[in-house]
Amino acid sequence: MTRLPDAQRLEIGDITVTALSDGPLPLGVDNLVGIEKDEYARLMRERHLDAETWRSGLNAFVIETGGRKILVDAGVAGNMGERTGRVAANMAAAGYAPDDIDTIYVTHMHPDHIAGLMGEDGARFGKAVLKVHEADHAHFSDEANASDATRAMLKAYEDQTETFATGADIATGLRNLHLPGHTPGHSGLEIQSGGSTLLLLTDIVHIAPVQLANPDVGTGFDTDVEQARATRKAILDRVASDETPILGSHITFPGAGFIERAETGYRFVQLPYSHDD
Ligand SMILES: [Zn+2]
What we know:
This protein is of the alpha+beta class. Helices cover 22% and strands 29% of the residues. The chain has helices at residues 37-46, 87-93, 111-114, 134-141, 148-156, 208-213, 225-242; strands at 7-12, 15-21, 32-33, 59-65, 68-72, 103-106, 118-119, 122-123, 129-133, 161-164, 169-171, 174-178, 187-193, 196-200, 218-219, 246-247, 256-261, 266-270. A hairpin with an 8-residue loop joins strand 12 and strand 13. The longest helix is centred in the C-terminal third of the chain and has 18 residues, at 225-242. The radius of gyration is 18 Å and the shape is globular. The protein starts with 6 loop residues before the first strand and ends in a 7-residue tail after the last strand. It binds zinc ion (ZN). The site of zinc ion has 6 residues, from helix 3.
């Protein structure tokens, strides 16, 4: 059977956000810090999920604003299981060619967000300016923190890279939202148009059903687990209080919804499906 494309469009005022799935991501309790297996299984069961077979999401986005086309992350290029690496196909299905992209917003420099930026002969997005937070650029340029993916990306995009500071304007209606801890420059995005706001919270959770129920639970990939925990708690409190809709990179596709307070912690309420005109 032909696999259907995993691409979904959202409108925020004059801004269009197209969510693209990279495929199901094999993460589980072993990737978390501060929770026992039994409690993990219990929280999953309580949410009608099977702890053994459940898969997390991995989402990238194309944002159209002010005549520009901005790619936010690009997936893991098939390096985390054979069902990942679908961003390229889903982008094509959504009508975007690599050369249509004029800006790449790198949320942070972990392989599941940047590996898909590479093609067979280097940069896959030859016409784009690559924007990355200055703190992540500095951290991952240091050989002590580098990986094959960061080395390859930094080299291939060397002449196309621009760093930005916390709170920088990225494009019309797009502003950096610094969410430090997961990595030093770990970045979300404030998407604002026509009185509407959507916040991309990136890797604020990796296993949403569990980490929303208990925001103290960290992930083994955090550069600074304590700082990531404080950042997660602060931003969840904010979006639950002001009811701002959010996007997550590792929330089940398309990863768009509201954070509500629950008896313990929070729960995710998915945005209703919106049909294209
Ligand atoms: Zn990630």
